[in-house]
Queue: 4 jobs
Job 1
Amino acid sequence: MALPLLGITPASHAAALPKSAVLGLGRDQPFDFDWRFCRGDNDAFAAPEFDDSGWREVDLPHDWSIEDLPYREGSGIVGPFDPNSEGGAATGFSVGGEGWYRKRFSGDGVPAKAHIEILFEGIYNESDVWLNGQHLGGHVHGYTPFAIDLTPNLRCGDNVVAVRVRNLGRNSRWYSGSGIYRGVTVDVHPEAARVGRWGVAIATRRITETLAELEIETRLVRPTPDLRLVSRIRNAGGTVVTESASAATDLVKQAVTIAFARLWSPDTPTLYTLETELRRGDQAIDAVSTPFGVRIVTFDAEAGMRINGVPVKLRGGCVHHDNGLLGAAAFPDAEERRVRLLRARGFNALRSSHNPPSRAFLDACDRHGMLLIDEAFDTWFAPKQPRDYSTHFRLDWETALSTMVLSARNHPSVIMWSIGNEVPKRSSSEGLETAWRLANAVHRLDPTRPVTAAVNAFAGRPMIADQDTARPGFGGMADESAAMFLDVVGYNYKLDRYASDHARYPKRVMFGSESFPKEAFEVWSFAEAHPYMIGDFVWAAMDYLGEAGVGNVARNRSNSSLPVIPAWPWVISNCGDVDLIGEQKPQSYARDVVWRVSPIEMAVLRPLPDGMYEHPSMWGWSNECQSWTWPGAEGQGLKVRVYARAQRVELHLNGKLAAATSLSSGETLPVEFEIPYAPGRLEVIAFRGEQEIGRRSLETVGAAATVALLAEEHVASAERGRLAYIRVEVTDAKGRWVPDAKHRIRLTTSGPAKLLGFGSGSPLAQASFQSHEAETYGGRALAILKTGGTPGTVRLTAESEGLRPGSIAIRLDRSSEVPGNTRGA
């Protein structure tokens, strides 16, 4: 049985700090509520006596770039996007700037010898922190956490922490958001001796049929001879399965075993919890709780990737960090939903492009068995944007890299560390030196995982060894330099190189770190047939803000013209398998067949006017629809695309055979039919031999009649800051979704929650994501509610002119489980 911890409240039971926050002893005390926020900049904002009563009250996480812009006379701009924004299409026409956050809290009751730290999980992008008017430090990497020591400047009575955030100039190639967009916590230790920040590491060394052997390393800060370190492991049911005690030194290494351990894998994501206690006698003066999984991941060109000895192929997708209508704000519920949606779509792996994800995202990956490539940088010392991270890289990379690795190394979902994406000047002398340093740093920090990177350019001229450096291996060919220091090589859009590179480098393990959606069948067929090709990551798994229009489909009268990337009012990428609000897109249905999630799927190509052609971009997809509702197209031949892993498919229209074909094993997908449109029921049936293996149907629906509301969870948590998602759908009189319905919806809410976001998956700029009005896109929209801490019933009503209104009641229950609330040091 665990000894009681001296005045320290576990994170899972920590109460929210009130406006005049009073700190108690304990780690991970929530510090997200009741901040004050102001756009603009003034040195006076750091002073504790500054009157911030006129500032807006906000809770964290907070992203000001997703909020409505101030009204500009005659501009016509309503919402968060501005066609004149400095970032342009790259950042989705969002607006950055400068902002300040302030929070008051009390130092009364904090012991005189206590050590106090505040942890910011993510601020975009350049930040500075003051306590009581004293500048304590800052941070320049917009995606890594950082801690600030408050101890020397904390005083009894009132204290004021102030944070300045600057998101200036062109510094990102995608939507970044602005502000303190991830959570904030405070640690109060009773004395200086403690477990170091991210100081616990646990690794599985050996697994047998009856035993799992693990190694625990714990770094301590200012240990004293009278202290002991106890490491205890509990299973998912809370039972202690092993325990070890050691004398407290700067670095404590312990070997433990678990009998008949339940192993972590994508199919069985079983988690254990390591409890680390620093004790003086029977008194625990510090405690850290670390969820982890027992698993061993290996990589080999002959055997491929294996988890606990079982071959696994990476069915992967790249993701950026935003949460759609919420912008960059990393609410744990939003991060959980994103992972859950993509897992349901067949993904078993994600790549955090091109930066470390939030702790809540990592936790969700652990719970859902989602494998993760954790990526540090989009650029090194050579810029891609004038004010991007390259301006800080040379002085900051060690801090950023070590923070990424140390803070995430206990997550079983993380299988590789990526040191960069499409890095410019990688084959230069400085580039090679940098790659060598980065790879070595990662291996020192975590010897258990391989180093990778996403490489888009291999070709080059022969190199001469750099005479100014004594680093080994700097000679050779430039086309090999990109992979020289990588354990596993990521290929961006290089399907044509896999076989030839394997012939040249037969021991190389490779994967598609980015691929085009349209290459899904060819890429996956190659991966299934070759162990050294361990999987593929499509760009992208989910739509995101910024890189506006990269997945567009152009229409014009030329059959040979190249597609163009559109400008304003496009604000969304439009290249995801899943759209901005979580709905499955046509390419996702095709991927269901490619990945064998489904034996057969069907889509209809949207009719084109006479003489018009469609031109999907490289990241785009043909304008297909899961619809057989085309009023005005009666008698017109419509192209029906069938994706199937079958020997024969039959297409039936209104009960009659309309077309059939046989498929060869080497045939690429899809198979295309042209069927004269007639309202009714279109059905496709797949056969293997004479046995039916699957069928899908599309049905003509009636006119839009009703607004339907569907809560993803009918019982949600009442805890302050939790989210509830409600799908809004336009349906016909029979309750069937109307695919092309475009209606303006008005929401009315009542009860203990407020509307946090409302919008659709449209790739074009929408008026506002905070308004109670939004227009459906593809017949759908999404409303997101945020709870205020009070149990009760929330009622939501949706109305639209000419449609029957819909309503729903959602019960907020104080006992609902909180995702992502177990946190390590």
Job 2
Amino acid sequence: MRIVEAFFLGILATYLSVGDRVLAEDRFPFVIPGDDARSGTATDFSYLSPQPAGEDGFVRVVDGRLHTQSGRLRLWGMNLCFGANFPTREDARKVAAHLAKLGVNAVRIHHHDLRDAPDGIWKAGLVGGERVFDKEMIDRLDYFLAKLHQHGIYADLNLHCSRQLKPEEGFPDHSRSGAMEFNKYVLYFEPRMKAELKKFCRAYLLHKNPYRSGRTRVEDPGVALIELTNENAFSTKGAGPAADLPEPYRSEFAAQWNRWLKRAYADDRGLRKAWGDRREPLGEPLASSDGWAKDASGFQWHALGGSELGVSFGAPGPQTDVPAARLDVIKASEQPWEQQFQVMNLSLEEGRLYTLQFFHRAEEPRSFGVEVAIQYPLPWEDLGGTTQIESSSEWQLHTQVFEAIRSVDGQARLCFNLGGSPHGVWIAGLSLRPGGRREAIPDRGSLAEGTIGIPVDERWGREALADVKAFMQEIEVGFTNEMLTFLREDLGVRVPISSTQVNYHGWEVAAQTSSDFTDVHSYWHHPQFPGRLWDPVDWTIENVAIETNPLTNDWPECSMLMRCAWRFLDRPFAYSEWNSGEPLRYGASLVTTAAIVGALQDFDAVFFFQYDQGNQDWFRDRMDSFFSMNGQPAKLAMVSAAANLFRRGDLAPLVELAPGTLHEQTHGGFALSHRLGVDPQRDAAPMRFEGDLRHPILRSPGDAVVWDAREPASAYVRVNTPNSRALTGFVGGRRFELGDLTVSVGACPDNYACVVVTSLDGQPLAASRRMLLSVVGWAENTGMVWNADRTSVGDEWGEGPTTMHRIPIKLGGLAVQGVRVWALDGTGKRLAEGSLDGLGVPPSPVSAFYELVRE
């Protein structure tokens, strides 16, 4: 840490960042070393794990929560991905000790099954026609798990993450098909894939770890949780992907579908009666392009996110008397819905047929979406007319007949979603009319011959679409329960198991599985890739603080509060992936958000995604990837500081419940005042949130937590508990009273800061003899180069060491009366004594960590 010490002697060159020349005293290098296990420092939170993981027995479910023999267990964890699951022995010892010091007590073994050694579990090539584990990688994982457990860190083992069955194993290479990627979706109904998964589970879970007294993984109480398959949607995706599957998978799905129909309806006559042929006379158009020779004729267009859409009328159509609207994409958006051409204020009648017809062509082959749906500002809802169009340079006629899902009076719209592609589109001869003709079996298939097609759009009618959904849900539930029974009864798994994340299953399916706990994922501002997915150069991330918008639920901006209601109230709940993309300037508060929401909602586990994804550079001094928290000092500092809120229980769970149903969740606006979740037995509608959705102020009982987003430029979250206080958001230039502690934050970049004061001896702050003050803003690498919009650094991440902005701060009140203070380096080593009346103000010591001692 010579660089940090040199700073406190005043030696630091002028730093250039984002085009602005920043004075040396405004930034300082700060690194939390990945091999730091210095014990006894104020930053050592290993005291939260006083004994080896599993020392007090297997993890089990008691009264709907995770327990061991010692009582309630809360997991504060990290994901490990790809090669990070297989460190060398020397690195394993260091990493395990370091994670324990951070306050981490769980790791999620993830994406271990994608690659060959040394970044995955597989031996390169096949042995006897089969893919087998690499012995060295298995040994590395065994040793790493042993070291983790020794330091009180449990494991969450994932069984199917990203394995792609290969042609050499007898599975055709269709990896380019979205439904085939990582064998997800298809896994639910393809019997050979299920057999391969069982074979993997048997070999993986019954392997004996020589560093854990020869116990198999199912015999090892250091394993806390097991997840069957990661982010695997099936019925929630619908039958559309199945209809587009390559052979032999499409035929397998269709055969099972026809067998299901035969059990349900016996013959074609019964099927036609159930699905129903319908003919309704066509009425007057609700929307048409009759006036497009001159103007928009009631249609409008708009573009979001800096995109541009040009619209002109009177363009040549497919026929001389049919004019077209030309929709030019001047500047493409990332999301399809960010560029729209639409007609508003339509009315529909539930159960009535409607016919939508139009011609279309495109500059270059592309797809675009068409929807008949609820219009903004009401929550989006498909009204039965949503579909995807594949367009080419030749004019094509699109006709669809759909049944309105519900009645809407003047609040529906017909909309073309044109974003996500740079190529323009022409639309002509458009009409939306009540009435139409719908055949019960549009493709004229026969149940007797097993040739009924796969219902994927409105042509099939509500009854057929409902049946294919019920079929898929039955398949999904059957597969899941069979696999969970196999794990428990055949392999002897004793710890809680989940199937897949509930936001991929859906509540109806999740309620029918025998999963022991519920799991969910979300991200705050996931990176976006306008061109090639995961392009390391062409990507963006919106620099938005979560404090400004706690109740948003739009991808990629998903707030944790809006995910709380996805749990089942009678089961443990794990948030096994949560993070933002790097380098988000306001990412540090995502850690405190997880601790605050997790504590109030009484989560059982929170896993940040991710600590690391490789095994070659564990001890770097810089950020180098979208998600890795290793090398990101602002987030790591908060991982330790916020651990007491969640793990120690400084912030008590809420008492009052606000249950939802299998069909309607409780709004996240109640997440600070009520515990949310689904009660599968409940029919009554959940509470209605009447507050401001965009700029709310939310409070927990007694104002232990206040989230004030009424003014985005000054939005903040404050926490006031006896043993810990926290303040995050745009708090610069302001003074806050947190009970008997006053916090005054000086002007700083964006006036954004995260401040946590927590006792280290379990006493209230006013009586504590030792406390840690953590103060961070946002971290950047040395020489990191942002684009003009500050939404991307491309591949110019810069070098180490990471630097942070100075946050001037003053503390006062009884909570810190009689306290001395020392600035600490990234390991917790004392550097110099400072004053509570001017921390972070040169020439006083400047740091992210300060130790407070009452003598």
Job 3
Amino acid sequence: MIDFEAVKEKSREELFREAGSGELGLDSAEARRRIALYGYNQIAFHRSKSPIRMFLGEFTAMFPLLLLAAALLAFLADMLSPAGGYDLIGYALLGVVVLNAVVSFLQNYKVEKLMISFLDYIPKMVALLRDGRKVMLDAKEVVPGDILFIQEGDKISADGILVEATQLIVDESVLTGESQPVQKLPLGICEEESCHAFSGATVMKGNGRILVLKTGRSTSIGAISMLSQRVEQDLTPMQKELREFVRRITWLALGIGTVFFAVGFLTGHTIWTNLVFAIGIIVANVPEGLLPTVTLALSQSSMRMSRRNAIVKDILSVETLGSTTVICTDKTGTLTENKLRTEFFYCDFTEIPAGDHAVYRDNPASHRLTEIMGLCTDVIAIGDERGRLSFRGDPTEIAMVEFVDQYAGYAALRSRFEPVTSRPFDVKSKSMSSTYRTRGGTLYMTVKGAPEVIVDKCREVYCEGLVRPMRPDERQKLLSQAGRYASDGLRVLALAWRVVSDPEAKVQELTFAGLVALSDPPRAEVPAAVEACRKAGIRIIVMSGDKSETVSYLARKLGIARRPHVVEGRELDTMSQDQLVGILKNEEVVFARIAPEQKLDVVEALKAMGEVVAVTGDGVNDAPALKRADIGISMGLRGTDVARDASDIILLDDNFATIVHAVEEGRGVYENIRKFIVYVLTSNVPEIIPYVAYVLMPIPLPITVVQMLCIDLFTDMLPAIGLGNEPPEPDTMQRPPRAAGDSLVSLEAFLNSYAFLGPVETVVSFVVFFNLLYRGGWRWGSVLLSDTPLYAQATGAFLATIIFCQVGNVMACRTSRRSAIGYLSRFNPWITGGIILEIVFIFSVIYLPMFNHFFTTASLDAWVWCWILPAPLIVFGAGELRKLIVRRVH
């Protein structure tokens, strides 16, 4: 394949000869040979995943493996003690792992189907010159040496050199990130890269022929796609923290089990008895309900985000976004509308905002300016059945014509003039002109172009309703004003006119009408989103392929930076990572004219600084950075398949403000997971301590294996899911992102569960247990058989007390530090339903004879409930007291 950099020095004949082609294109036999040599013109944007492999992959994470190991231990304990009910634990744990895998798989498979539906980026059919004839073929059949026809609306399907071009304007923003469309010229009269055509770009206007030089993975879009596929993704913060939690809980369980085994051995119990109870303690320490609860909480959060037009490809990404400290965002189409709009007019030496129609209407020069904008254009107007107009053509002209249509009526304006001649925009003269005949028969030439060119050709100026000679100071004033607009990142055009006698008259001796400044405006919702990010302690860094002035202006306008420090791509080329890290410490830094691999460098530097990085984008050039970031966010409407495949979250409405909602959702779900981990771990203590007490003391076993299983996998489940669905607390977005060392299950959470609330529940449960035993005639040290009514009543009361303690615990856990008293009246269907289910369950297993034997329970007298019913208030009060102390300390 021919090197692009070398083509500028070649003639048309040399280029065709080196490409092995000619003016009539390739013949079919040669095309087939080249397909065998270069391969088909296609790129695997998204490698489809096998559903079976996706499902099996759900079993390979650390937590499912821990639960599977616990299930094996339970089956081992059942072999050693067949009547202990350990087989139920084993089957329950297997059921939990399978259920979790199914829920997670269904979520991910739904997203996989969505991704496949997106794969329509490269055009299916293209026009080629084959065997000397123009034919329509599948885009994958294009090979180097082909002649490819392009016209308005086409997406270019290969890289090549323009050998013909007529008024050709191309949008390359998906590749370069630069918002302004590019005018393309054919080989021979092109400058720099203006004769290069790239796969993935869209033809905005005109037509042309391309000599194809690169196809498939060799194209620019293919190279970036391959770069993004080589980039490795790190584990998400949630994955890292769950892995750390599994490590801690595993060592805790093994440690307690080992100590318990040794103590039991020393106290005279048989080795098999000790092993069975050690396994029981290990299994009791494993929070079996945590995995499905985490999965359901993340899945439901993903569904809530989907209702806000954000598709989450991996449910763990929800929480990652809540951890974000830096958002690196593209400009075009992300912060801006990717559609030019008139911002200011400068006529009669006065600046007029485009939205101020009253001031504009009162200025005499504005009427002439409106005429020139509506006449000096090549746009195509298309009317619908209601008579409303839409426009196709150059985005700059569309922006001005849309203003004209809104202000004066485009069709009405044009009806007053008869077109005579038109000179299209010329890249060398940097201007275009159109001549019309008025109703009075006058030839009226309208001109627009670069300010420095048009102002130089003007001898007169329209001012205060009169045409008069332009003074030198006025000429300088106009150029200075145009320069100020340009420095603010606005696109500036000068408009002028001339009455001529010959339709072919030269563009000179003009009368100046005014300046028009245009911009790619920010999305209306972005300023509020930027402010919300600032309050939440999230930094925003703009990384754009656009020019410095545009990026700086936008950063100032949106409040991203007051005095932006703009770093261009060529500066980045000379920096080491340490130097880049030093630059990034400047809170006001933004990047312009940046290449795809340089975006990747910025992300790497930020990650080296310990930041949790989110990257937003829609173009192919964003894909490597999207994939390397901790969280990649692509645009669903105008985003490319490459970007969507590399991202973790897809915004279906391309709305930057959706990110703020997603951050709040992510922060909320993280806090909620913390809450229900505290809730779930708390009940482990009154499950573990009875085993320890049973071995060390001459007492009956207060809780059976089946009862323990009921708490972990039944009564605790719905309230835990309810905690996972709590709305974010009011100050969620006023707090900074959590610190890097702040773990999901912190020392504070462990102490709260294992050293405070857990012991409180244990003490309350033992008080009820021993009170019932003593009233029933049992005395310390005496033997109480497991098949006696008193033992069944005591274990049932112990189980009931734990469950009622957990009712108070779940209400206390609804807030982290704020008082939960105000939340008692807030309706959460999962928590309310869970509490009702717990009460129905405990009364059923205690008072329905059919359940008594299986659950080792018996009917309780009314006086026992006088001791059980205060349990929720005791635990809730303890939780509130702890939070009060924490608030005062902090």
Job 4
Amino acid sequence: MTATDAVPTAARDGVERRAAEERRGLGLGTRIFLITALLIVLAVGGAVAYTAFTAGRIARDQAAEALRASHEVFTTSRTEREGALLRDASIFASDPGVAIYLAEAIPAGDRASILDQLGERRADFEFDFAAVLDPDGRLVARTDRPAGGGEELEESDLVAQALEEYVAAGLWREGDALYEATVVPIDPGGLLAGFLVTGFDLGLDRVMGNDVAAVIESGGALAIAASTLGLDRERLLASALRARPGPYRRAVEEGETVGGVELDLDGEPWIALFAPLADAAGDPVGASAVLVSLDRELAPFRAIQRALLAAGLAAVLLAFALSFGFARRVLAPIRRLGAAAAAARDGDYDQEIPTGRGDEVGSLARAFDHLLSDLREKRDMEAYVAELSRTLPDAGAVQPLEPTVRPAVRERLALLGAEFRDRARLGSGEPGEVIEGLGRDLRRLRELAVARGGRVEAVAGHRAWVSFRGSARCQRALATAADLLAAGGRSLNAPAVAIAEGPAEAGTVGENGSARPALAGPPVQQLESLVREAGPGDIVLDRRVHDELAEAFARSGLALVERRGVITPQPLYLVRPDEAAQVTSDLASPTPMTAVGPRRGDRETLSQIRPGSVVGGRFEILSLLGMGGMGMVFKARDRELDDLVALKMLRADRGVGAEEVERLKEELKLARRITHPNVLRTYDLGMVDGTPFISMEYVRGVTLRYLLDQTDRLPYSAGLRLSRQLCHGLAAAHAVGVVHRDIKPENLILEPNGNAKLMDFGIARLLRRPDPDRTPEGMVVGTPHYLAPEQLRGEEATPRSDIYSAGVVLYELFTGELPFRAQSAREAVMAAIEQEPTPPSTYWPEIPGDLERALLTCLEKDPDGRFAGAPDLLRRLDALRA
């Protein structure tokens, strides 16, 4: 080995050695144990230190808060006391005997009589002094100064307020004394005779366990007028305030409430709150001080500090015993999630994940469970679509005329027979011309039938049978016949067509080791005879088909005459192709495209567009994808962008004038704004020979209608995924102001990977409804089986209307049935407006209750009873798990 070889080897050895060391290192559980123990030690030690450091500050803050509360209580109690004193004085002065007596004595200046009267009442009202004033505020008599009189008191704030406002109450300072005084009128008979003044010494009580003092300034020094402290502490407080008069000055001179004032009363720390004491006019007469001892406030904190220290020591000792078990317990669900993730990495998504925890681990578990559920749904959807796609024709190819092998079933169907009689005659041209022409005719018949939900059952020589199942089967069969005869009219080369309806058995029969499709039943037998009765370009109906379409014929003003056949005695009815197109032009049907045949006027224009044609000098037509009431849909290549697109050629008879084209352009501007994975993109609008066309995103896939026709209903997990995708697409449309108005299985297409896209935004609405604000009365826009009741009544569609239609689609998706039984469009309309939907559990007993309730909420008759929008329905579906 060379030296250069040794370098990479040494590097690999180093990597392996480090990896081995990492494997031998401390596990996550051990690290959590050690970190937890360390954090407990740090937390406890820090708590003790912090408590010791901040105990004094907390005590001061708490004391300050207690002082503020005490001050509020003190202020409130003083106000209540003033009110009580004023009330008692009013009772005293309003006593008729007292008032009349005083009213007679005041003008005479009879001081002795007044003092006698006040003395008799002093025991009842417990005032410290009382005085009587004349109406001008001059003193007439006063109990604590019997010899006084004639003093002018109108300059006193309290008396001045009484002279102005008739009554007054507040503080009255005389010398170094503070009184709580009241002034009330003496007015027997409503005539003012004078005023009664009652005064009470300022009495203070402890408030909320805190001491209170009234501080005044006397002789240039601060003094205590009253307090709850006791004489010794009063002297200490007065001394402390003289040494520090600032808080008192601020309270008295500036009218502030000054808190957090620390005072030293002979070595004992106190904290005080000062507030101004004002008389009746608001002039300061002193300050109140609410005080509390800091030692008393700190006592409980010091006890807590000692208890915390003891508890901390115990916690540290327990930490090492508990943290290891705690770490293992915390890691247990994470280990389970890790195992599930490893299994999911290997493709096993069927893992049980406990999701009951309410913490972050629980959130992670729920998110992972949702992820597994989404993966299961995606897996099941892809497998389901992949299995169905095995029976799909190749892109651009013609679907085989023979259906796939299927089990025998009994069902009602409409059977269309087409006989291409001109292909029965051999021409004089090259060999193979007849067969080649017959192939073109059969391919055209297949395209028209598939576009309307039909299926080619058999081909015998120059005759083919097509079956139509489900609702509106007779309408769709007649529309297919009208389209088939559109180009040839009633010429001798036109095919002869007959339609029969009734119960039949469909299945396969074995022959030489292979399986062939087979039909048996009355419609088959009747069709054999009816085809013989039809001439070139004729459409012959049996009685059952006629009865099924009688209402449609009546609306179109047609009355078919019953005839007797030449070959068969059964009754039959003859319909011309233009009459068939007229009858089916406005009938909707739940088929891959709306079952409305093109009218004669634009049929010639659309029939000229075939594979190989170039539309608008840009789009090369590759194949016909479908046909319906709005026109035809082609697969095309955009030569400018070298990309595949879908072109919808719109029928000219839908009244698309210059104004309608402009309105359609405005609608397409909104539709182009919807850039969402679950919405089929709309690109542009153009015109060719007066016929408008719309270019859209091309998707190689199958519609939901095709899936439902194959299996009735989807598996639960696949159905949930598709339902959410429908809601996502609908929410994206509503977010930009687009109401779809025609949600149905035909308008939801699935890509091979299972992703669903919502199609056909806004086109039917603009082309079928000339009034932008209201659908014309009697006109049904869309497919009746899927329209909301308000749409069926001709009212304006809203996002809640789309919610109803989505509910019908989800109902059919999960149950394989429609909410209402109806054999015709009229029955579907009446049922949706008048009847209650069949509970989904009738068709699927195992349906989850939350899902059934969500479906029935979507199908409420009243729009206000439905989900407000697609996001609300989506949230309900997100709560369901596969």
